[in-house]
Amino acid sequence: MSQTSQLPPLVRALDSASEWFGRSLAWLIILMMLIQFAIVLLRYVFSVNSVFMQELVMYMHSAVFMLAAAYTLRHDGHVRVDIFYRKMAPRRQALINLCGIVFLLMPVMVFIIVSSLGYVGNSWRILETSPDYGGIPAVFLLKTLIPLFALFMLIQGAVELVRNAYILTGRIVPPSTGDEHLEERI
Predict the structure, then answer these.
(1) Whose CA is closest to 112, among 76, 157, 175?
(2) HEC string of the chain?
(3) Residue 103 and residue 161 in contact, taking contact as beta carbons nearer than 8 Å
(4) CA distances in angstroms from 47 to 39, 52, 135, listed in the order given
(5) In this structure, is the dihedral angle defined by the CA atoms of residues 17, 23, 29 and 35, taken in order, positive or negative?
(6) Which of 65, 70, 91, 183 is placed for a possible disulfide with 152 were both Cys, Cβ 3.0 to 4.6 Å?
């Protein structure tokens, strides 16, 4: 989905921000891998255990998983059972995408935000810390990823809503995907 330049300026800015943020989060994976290597090295070579480092890997993994979901949506990388979808015309695919965004994605993300606010708010109220000695004293920040995930998904969902509406109305030429699918190249 690379027709970003044909979208309205605000939508284009949100789409570009999602792209930049997703690419930036990818660097956390390298950092996470290096820290995990250090944990293994410290534990098995020097017999030193660090709860802080173990939790740091968990925090980074959570951040990548939760916050990069919108980037994945932008690149149409979410799991989809597309037995019929794949063979449809681009405009029909856009219509299905619109229905999926309006009737599934957005209501679920709103539900996640509404249902998590009390949970996250209580965590912030007590400034929840790790239950383990030496852990990261910021569990409240970790829990904040839940509504942030849903907010980012709502924003990217709105971008995809506009993109698919533009495809449906002919204002954007849909990307030509051919018959190649990434999952079939493996």
Answers:
(1) 157
(2) CCCHHHCCHHHHHHHHHHHHHHHHHHHHHHHHHHHHHHHHHHHHHHCCCCHHHHHHHHHHHHHHHHHCHHHHHHCCCCCCCCCCHHHCCHHHHHHHHHHHHHHHHHHHHHHHHHHHHHHHHHHHHCCCCCCCCCCCCCHHHHHHHHHHHHHHHHHHHHHHHHHHHHHHHCCCCCCCCCCCCHHHCC
(3) no
(4) 10, 15, 18
(5) negative
(6) 70
Give the residue from 144, 153, 146 showing the smallest Cα distance to 105: 153
pTM of the model: 0.86
Phi, psi of 98 (to 5 degrees): -60, -45
Which tokens is 17 given? 């921000």
Residues 65-100 have pLDDT tens digits of: 999 999 999 998 877 767 788 888 889 999 999 999
